[in-house]
Amino acid sequence: MVMAPCFDKNGRKKGAWSEEEDNKLRAYIERNGHYNWRELPKLAGLSRCGKSCRLRWKNYLCPDVKRGNYSKEEEDTIVSLHNKLGNKWSKIAEKLPGRSDNEIKNHWHAHLKTRAQKDQRILMSKYEEIESLQTDKTNPRVSPAKNINVKSKENIVTQVPTKSSSQLSSISATSSSSLSGSHYATSTHVSPQSSCYIPEGDFWTEPFVVDNNSIYSSDISSSPLGLVNDFIFQTSCQEMFLNDTLSLSSLDSYL
DNA sequence: AATGGGGTCAACCGCGGTCCA
DNA sequence: CTGGACCGCGGTTGACCCCAT
């Protein structure tokens, strides 16, 4: 779990912390605070570098640090914030009292990244499903929503906060209701700010407004009810884009 | 029982930002 | 303005754990 203790060229200890070291560091900081990490190890009687002390305190010894499993709410918050902020672990940690940036980062890589990638794949298959319906020329018709202006892919991707590769997994599962306050209380959420994988000529490149080819099943589309459904589907998806709450389950409910 | 491989997580490293002389 | 010291952040490493074979 931890590196075996060793010493650097300056004779400072590296690797796992002993209980004695922990006690020294804790006692010193509780007594004097940590105004200067560089001086601290010397004053506390530790053969460590200041950085190492800082990390040990921040991630482990600080009384505010919460140990133990992550709640569903915490995980949802991490995923959602990661969608918005990217790998800004310290910013994410600010929103999760008791969790350190390092701990959140580890938890992301160990658990949440996989979950996010899985949900991304599901979401993309839904997009493709819509797209295939959209491009079905066998049932051309005019959409009642044709004049509505919708966010394009260009608008979306320009808001990407970082170029980190880990952001490829930015479509992910979370409770959108917990953060966005949206009435689309869902289990899965995609942010328009995310830099998710986008296939060429995809869903994102086309506005939800469709001129003559719309998103319908053939049996409904020929009826007045079909027209109403088209309008509801398109305007609702649009609203979800604009409100940053497009989700798998909301898509499901419309399909 | 032995072992190998993936998962987990504490800790280190390097870089960039800020501050100050 | 510049350069050095310091701090904080994000990426990465590596040792231990655990489970499957």
UniProtKB/TrEMBL annotation:
Keywords: DNA-binding, Homeobox, Nucleus, Repeat. It comes from the Eukaryota. Residues 9-61, 63-116 form the HTH myb-type domain. GO terms for cellular component: nucleus. Pfam families: Myb_DNA-binding. SMART domains: SANT. GO terms for molecular function: DNA binding. The keyword Repeat applies. InterPro entries: Homeodomain-like_sf, Myb_dom, Myb_TF_plants, SANT/Myb. Residues 9-61, 62-112 form the Myb-like domain. It is found in: Nucleus. PROSITE patterns: HTH_MYB, MYB_LIKE. Residues 134-154 are annotated as: Disordered. The keyword Phosphoprotein does not apply. PANTHER family: MYB FAMILY TRANSCRIPTION FACTOR (PTHR10641), MYB-RELATED PROTEIN MYB4-LIKE (PTHR10641:SF1377). This is Homeodomain-like protein. It comes from Artemisia annua.
